[in-house]
Amino acid sequence: MLLGVAHLDPGLFAAAALRLWLAALIFGAIGLYAASLSAQPGAAVLAAFGLLLLFSVIGRAQDLSLPGLSLFAWLAWNEHLLWFLPGAVRVSDVTYFLLFTGLFLALTRRRLANRRLA
Question: Which residues contact 9 (CB under 8 A, 6 or more apart)?
Fold first, then answer.
């Protein structure tokens, strides 16, 4: 629809699509983990929102710490999404999203296995 009207940059479009998919992956994995913690859907939604908010705000803790310590900035998911806006796809950002998605999926699997054994 826009091909005849405006110039679309395919690299920028691909980076934005990858950004959307990676964000959906980590949000879904965190939501699934929160759902495995509680039998109540409302509590699971609040837990997932709280975890996502924690990982979003934790990047601001870098302002309170030493200038050379950037662990808090690395833990914030929104800091990694910002690099996709100009079309820059960094391997460290993709690794972050895949690592945290795998971590929360593994935690979910472990929680469900413990619940089944109990």
Answer: 87
Domain total for the chain? 1
Distance, C-alpha 56 to centroid of its chain: 9
- Residue 90 lies in domain: 11-113
Q: What is the pTM of this model?
A: 0.83
Asked if residue 97 belongs to a domain, the reply is: yes
Query: What SS3 class is residue 8?
Result: coil
> Could you tell me which of 54, 47, 22, 18 has the C-alpha nearest to residue 32?
47
104-117 exposure pattern, b = at least 16 Cβ within 10 A, e = fewer: bbebbeeeeeeeee
Examine the pLDDT at 50 and tell me if it is beyond 90.
yes
Q: How many residues does the chain have?
A: 118
